[in-house]
Write a structure and sequence with these properties.
Beta Polymerase, domain 2; two-stranded antiparallel sheet; 17% strand
Length: 275
Protein backbone atom coordinates (compact mmCIF):
# COMPACT_ATOMS: atom_id res chain seq x y z
CA UNK A 1 0.00 0.00 0.00
CA UNK A 2 1.38 3.42 -0.96
CA UNK A 3 2.49 5.73 1.81
CA UNK A 4 -0.01 8.48 2.62
CA UNK A 5 0.73 11.95 1.32
CA UNK A 6 1.33 14.45 4.17
CA UNK A 7 -1.12 17.27 4.75
CA UNK A 8 -0.12 20.87 4.12
CA UNK A 9 -0.26 22.32 7.62
CA UNK A 10 0.32 25.84 6.33
CA UNK A 11 -2.80 25.55 4.19
CA UNK A 12 -4.83 24.21 7.12
CA UNK A 13 -3.65 27.05 9.36
CA UNK A 14 -4.66 29.59 6.71
CA UNK A 15 -8.11 28.03 6.40
CA UNK A 16 -8.65 28.17 10.15
CA UNK A 17 -7.56 31.80 10.37
CA UNK A 18 -9.82 32.79 7.48
CA UNK A 19 -12.91 30.77 8.37
CA UNK A 20 -12.82 30.79 12.17
CA UNK A 21 -14.05 34.38 12.22
CA UNK A 22 -17.10 33.77 10.02
CA UNK A 23 -20.30 34.25 12.02
CA UNK A 24 -22.15 31.01 12.68
CA UNK A 25 -19.21 28.63 12.37
CA UNK A 26 -18.79 26.78 15.68
CA UNK A 27 -16.15 24.22 14.70
CA UNK A 28 -13.86 23.42 11.77
CA UNK A 29 -12.58 19.93 11.04
CA UNK A 30 -10.49 18.12 8.46
CA UNK A 31 -12.27 15.08 7.06
CA UNK A 32 -11.96 12.50 4.31
CA UNK A 33 -8.82 10.62 3.36
CA UNK A 34 -6.58 13.40 4.68
CA UNK A 35 -8.01 13.03 8.18
CA UNK A 36 -7.64 9.23 8.05
CA UNK A 37 -4.02 9.33 6.83
CA UNK A 38 -4.92 7.72 3.49
CA UNK A 39 -4.48 10.67 1.12
CA UNK A 40 -2.63 10.75 -2.17
CA UNK A 41 -0.96 13.85 -3.57
CA UNK A 42 -4.14 14.52 -5.58
CA UNK A 43 -6.56 14.21 -2.66
CA UNK A 44 -8.83 17.16 -1.90
CA UNK A 45 -8.94 18.84 1.48
CA UNK A 46 -12.42 18.17 2.89
CA UNK A 47 -13.22 20.81 5.50
CA UNK A 48 -16.31 20.38 7.67
CA UNK A 49 -17.97 23.55 8.98
CA UNK A 50 -20.26 22.85 11.93
CA UNK A 51 -23.00 25.28 12.91
CA UNK A 52 -26.11 25.51 15.11
CA UNK A 53 -29.42 25.50 13.19
CA UNK A 54 -30.71 28.56 15.06
CA UNK A 55 -27.53 30.49 14.22
CA UNK A 56 -26.52 29.36 10.71
CA UNK A 57 -23.35 30.25 8.87
CA UNK A 58 -23.26 33.69 7.29
CA UNK A 59 -22.60 32.44 3.76
CA UNK A 60 -21.98 35.95 2.44
CA UNK A 61 -19.14 36.42 4.92
CA UNK A 62 -17.93 32.91 4.15
CA UNK A 63 -17.69 33.70 0.43
CA UNK A 64 -15.68 36.86 1.15
CA UNK A 65 -13.37 35.02 3.55
CA UNK A 66 -12.79 32.26 1.01
CA UNK A 67 -11.75 34.66 -1.74
CA UNK A 68 -9.34 36.47 0.60
CA UNK A 69 -7.36 33.27 1.13
CA UNK A 70 -3.85 33.51 -0.35
CA UNK A 71 -3.84 32.04 -3.84
CA UNK A 72 -7.64 31.62 -4.04
CA UNK A 73 -8.64 31.65 -7.69
CA UNK A 74 -12.12 30.12 -7.70
CA UNK A 75 -15.00 30.05 -5.29
CA UNK A 76 -18.53 28.66 -5.44
CA UNK A 77 -20.25 29.09 -2.07
CA UNK A 78 -23.82 27.82 -1.67
CA UNK A 79 -26.68 28.72 0.59
CA UNK A 80 -27.48 26.30 3.40
CA UNK A 81 -29.69 23.53 2.04
CA UNK A 82 -28.80 24.14 -1.61
CA UNK A 83 -27.33 20.67 -2.15
CA UNK A 84 -30.11 18.77 -0.37
CA UNK A 85 -31.07 17.74 3.16
CA UNK A 86 -27.96 15.69 4.00
CA UNK A 87 -25.01 17.21 2.16
CA UNK A 88 -26.71 20.53 2.62
CA UNK A 89 -24.25 22.93 1.07
CA UNK A 90 -20.72 24.17 1.05
CA UNK A 91 -18.12 25.44 -1.38
CA UNK A 92 -15.62 24.29 -3.96
CA UNK A 93 -12.39 26.24 -3.73
CA UNK A 94 -8.93 26.21 -5.25
CA UNK A 95 -6.29 27.60 -2.87
CA UNK A 96 -2.65 27.76 -3.99
CA UNK A 97 -3.43 25.14 -6.63
CA UNK A 98 -5.04 22.70 -4.16
CA UNK A 99 -8.68 21.76 -4.14
CA UNK A 100 -10.51 22.55 -0.92
CA UNK A 101 -14.11 21.42 -0.40
CA UNK A 102 -16.13 23.05 2.38
CA UNK A 103 -19.07 21.07 3.73
CA UNK A 104 -21.76 22.41 6.06
CA UNK A 105 -22.84 20.27 9.00
CA UNK A 106 -25.80 21.02 11.29
CA UNK A 107 -24.70 20.19 14.86
CA UNK A 108 -28.23 19.39 16.05
CA UNK A 109 -28.88 17.03 13.14
CA UNK A 110 -25.53 15.32 13.65
CA UNK A 111 -26.31 14.82 17.34
CA UNK A 112 -29.73 13.36 16.48
CA UNK A 113 -28.18 10.97 13.96
CA UNK A 114 -25.63 9.74 16.49
CA UNK A 115 -28.39 8.94 18.98
CA UNK A 116 -30.41 7.22 16.24
CA UNK A 117 -27.38 5.10 15.33
CA UNK A 118 -27.06 4.01 18.96
CA UNK A 119 -30.70 2.93 18.76
CA UNK A 120 -30.11 1.01 15.52
CA UNK A 121 -31.94 3.45 13.26
CA UNK A 122 -30.42 4.60 9.96
CA UNK A 123 -31.68 6.46 6.92
CA UNK A 124 -30.71 6.21 3.25
CA UNK A 125 -31.16 8.97 0.70
CA UNK A 126 -30.39 9.59 -2.96
CA UNK A 127 -27.55 12.09 -3.08
CA UNK A 128 -25.40 13.30 -5.99
CA UNK A 129 -21.82 12.39 -5.21
CA UNK A 130 -22.85 9.17 -3.46
CA UNK A 131 -23.68 6.69 -6.25
CA UNK A 132 -25.00 4.07 -3.82
CA UNK A 133 -26.73 6.24 -1.22
CA UNK A 134 -26.05 8.76 1.50
CA UNK A 135 -26.37 6.72 4.70
CA UNK A 136 -27.11 8.77 7.81
CA UNK A 137 -24.40 6.94 9.78
CA UNK A 138 -21.85 8.82 7.67
CA UNK A 139 -22.38 11.78 10.02
CA UNK A 140 -21.28 9.63 12.95
CA UNK A 141 -18.27 8.30 11.09
CA UNK A 142 -17.22 11.82 10.15
CA UNK A 143 -17.20 12.90 13.78
CA UNK A 144 -15.32 9.75 14.79
CA UNK A 145 -12.59 10.11 12.16
CA UNK A 146 -12.17 13.86 11.72
CA UNK A 147 -9.22 15.93 12.85
CA UNK A 148 -10.51 18.89 14.82
CA UNK A 149 -8.81 22.04 13.55
CA UNK A 150 -10.76 24.68 15.48
CA UNK A 151 -13.38 24.21 18.19
CA UNK A 152 -12.98 26.98 20.77
CA UNK A 153 -16.00 25.93 22.85
CA UNK A 154 -15.45 22.16 22.46
CA UNK A 155 -18.89 21.63 20.88
CA UNK A 156 -17.69 18.44 19.18
CA UNK A 157 -16.25 16.81 22.31
CA UNK A 158 -19.51 15.25 23.58
CA UNK A 159 -20.35 14.00 20.09
CA UNK A 160 -16.93 12.38 19.68
CA UNK A 161 -17.32 10.58 23.00
CA UNK A 162 -20.53 8.99 21.67
CA UNK A 163 -18.67 7.57 18.65
CA UNK A 164 -16.26 5.32 20.53
CA UNK A 165 -16.84 2.45 20.86
CA UNK A 166 -18.76 1.72 17.67
CA UNK A 167 -22.35 0.90 18.67
CA UNK A 168 -23.33 -2.75 18.26
CA UNK A 169 -26.87 -1.67 17.35
CA UNK A 170 -25.53 0.36 14.41
CA UNK A 171 -23.60 -2.59 13.02
CA UNK A 172 -26.65 -4.83 13.29
CA UNK A 173 -28.86 -2.22 11.60
CA UNK A 174 -26.47 -1.76 8.68
CA UNK A 175 -26.12 -5.49 8.09
CA UNK A 176 -29.89 -5.90 8.27
CA UNK A 177 -30.41 -3.03 5.81
CA UNK A 178 -27.78 -3.94 3.23
CA UNK A 179 -26.74 -7.58 3.17
CA UNK A 180 -29.93 -8.95 1.66
CA UNK A 181 -29.61 -6.44 -1.21
CA UNK A 182 -26.13 -7.67 -2.09
CA UNK A 183 -27.67 -10.95 -3.25
CA UNK A 184 -30.93 -9.42 -4.52
CA UNK A 185 -29.06 -7.04 -6.85
CA UNK A 186 -27.22 -9.94 -8.49
CA UNK A 187 -30.44 -11.89 -8.90
CA UNK A 188 -31.96 -8.90 -10.68
CA UNK A 189 -28.95 -8.60 -12.96
CA UNK A 190 -29.12 -12.23 -13.99
CA UNK A 191 -32.75 -12.80 -14.88
CA UNK A 192 -35.28 -11.46 -17.35
CA UNK A 193 -34.01 -8.68 -19.56
CA UNK A 194 -31.26 -7.76 -17.11
CA UNK A 195 -28.71 -10.13 -18.57
CA UNK A 196 -29.18 -8.53 -22.00
CA UNK A 197 -28.72 -4.97 -20.70
CA UNK A 198 -25.06 -4.27 -19.87
CA UNK A 199 -25.75 -0.89 -18.25
CA UNK A 200 -28.41 -2.36 -15.98
CA UNK A 201 -26.24 -5.35 -15.10
CA UNK A 202 -23.33 -3.02 -14.27
CA UNK A 203 -25.57 -0.97 -11.98
CA UNK A 204 -26.76 -4.11 -10.19
CA UNK A 205 -23.18 -5.32 -9.80
CA UNK A 206 -22.13 -1.98 -8.31
CA UNK A 207 -25.02 -2.05 -5.84
CA UNK A 208 -24.08 -5.56 -4.78
CA UNK A 209 -20.48 -4.53 -4.17
CA UNK A 210 -21.54 -1.37 -2.30
CA UNK A 211 -23.86 -3.41 -0.07
CA UNK A 212 -21.09 -5.91 0.62
CA UNK A 213 -18.79 -3.06 1.67
CA UNK A 214 -21.46 -1.70 4.02
CA UNK A 215 -21.93 -5.17 5.47
CA UNK A 216 -18.25 -5.94 5.96
CA UNK A 217 -17.47 -2.57 7.55
CA UNK A 218 -20.42 -3.08 9.91
CA UNK A 219 -19.33 -6.63 10.74
CA UNK A 220 -15.91 -5.26 11.69
CA UNK A 221 -17.47 -2.38 13.65
CA UNK A 222 -15.78 0.18 11.42
CA UNK A 223 -17.34 3.38 10.09
CA UNK A 224 -17.78 3.59 6.30
CA UNK A 225 -17.88 7.18 5.07
CA UNK A 226 -17.96 6.91 1.30
CA UNK A 227 -18.31 4.45 -1.56
CA UNK A 228 -15.09 5.93 -2.97
CA UNK A 229 -12.25 3.84 -1.61
CA UNK A 230 -14.56 1.41 0.17
CA UNK A 231 -13.44 -1.69 -1.76
CA UNK A 232 -9.78 -1.03 -0.98
CA UNK A 233 -10.83 -0.16 2.57
CA UNK A 234 -12.24 -3.65 3.04
CA UNK A 235 -8.70 -5.00 2.66
CA UNK A 236 -7.74 -3.30 5.92
CA UNK A 237 -10.51 -5.09 7.83
CA UNK A 238 -9.90 -8.24 9.86
CA UNK A 239 -13.03 -10.12 8.76
CA UNK A 240 -13.43 -10.25 4.98
CA UNK A 241 -13.39 -12.64 2.01
CA UNK A 242 -9.86 -13.32 0.85
CA UNK A 243 -8.50 -11.04 -1.90
CA UNK A 244 -11.71 -9.02 -1.83
CA UNK A 245 -10.49 -5.99 -3.80
CA UNK A 246 -8.78 -8.02 -6.54
CA UNK A 247 -11.82 -10.24 -6.99
CA UNK A 248 -14.19 -7.28 -7.15
CA UNK A 249 -12.03 -5.55 -9.74
CA UNK A 250 -11.88 -8.65 -11.91
CA UNK A 251 -15.59 -9.36 -11.58
CA UNK A 252 -16.60 -5.85 -12.58
CA UNK A 253 -14.21 -5.91 -15.53
CA UNK A 254 -15.81 -9.15 -16.73
CA UNK A 255 -19.30 -7.61 -16.93
CA UNK A 256 -22.14 -10.15 -16.90
CA UNK A 257 -19.63 -13.00 -16.80
CA UNK A 258 -18.37 -11.66 -13.47
CA UNK A 259 -21.72 -11.96 -11.70
CA UNK A 260 -20.93 -15.48 -10.52
CA UNK A 261 -17.69 -14.23 -8.94
CA UNK A 262 -19.62 -11.57 -7.07
CA UNK A 263 -22.13 -14.19 -5.97
CA UNK A 264 -19.25 -16.16 -4.45
CA UNK A 265 -18.23 -13.08 -2.45
CA UNK A 266 -21.81 -12.79 -1.18
CA UNK A 267 -21.74 -16.44 -0.10
CA UNK A 268 -18.42 -16.01 1.71
CA UNK A 269 -19.70 -12.91 3.46
CA UNK A 270 -22.77 -14.88 4.58
CA UNK A 271 -20.45 -17.43 6.20
CA UNK A 272 -18.58 -14.67 8.02
CA UNK A 273 -21.87 -13.35 9.36
CA UNK A 274 -22.72 -16.78 10.77
CA UNK A 275 -19.42 -17.13 12.63
Amino acid sequence: MAEAHPNDQTLLDRLVRALGGVPGIRAIVLGGSRARGEASAQSDYDIGLYYEPDNPIDVGRLAKAAMLLPGAVRSSVTAIGEWGPWINGGAWLTVDGRRVDLLYRDLAKVADVIEACHAGRIERAYQPGHPHAFVSAIYMGEVAHCQVLWDPEAVLAPLRRRCDPYPAALGEALIRAFFWEARFALENAGHGRGNRDPAYAAGCAFRSVACLCQTLFALNRAYLLNEKGAVVGVERLALKPADFAVRVRRALADGAVGLDALSALVDETAELLKA
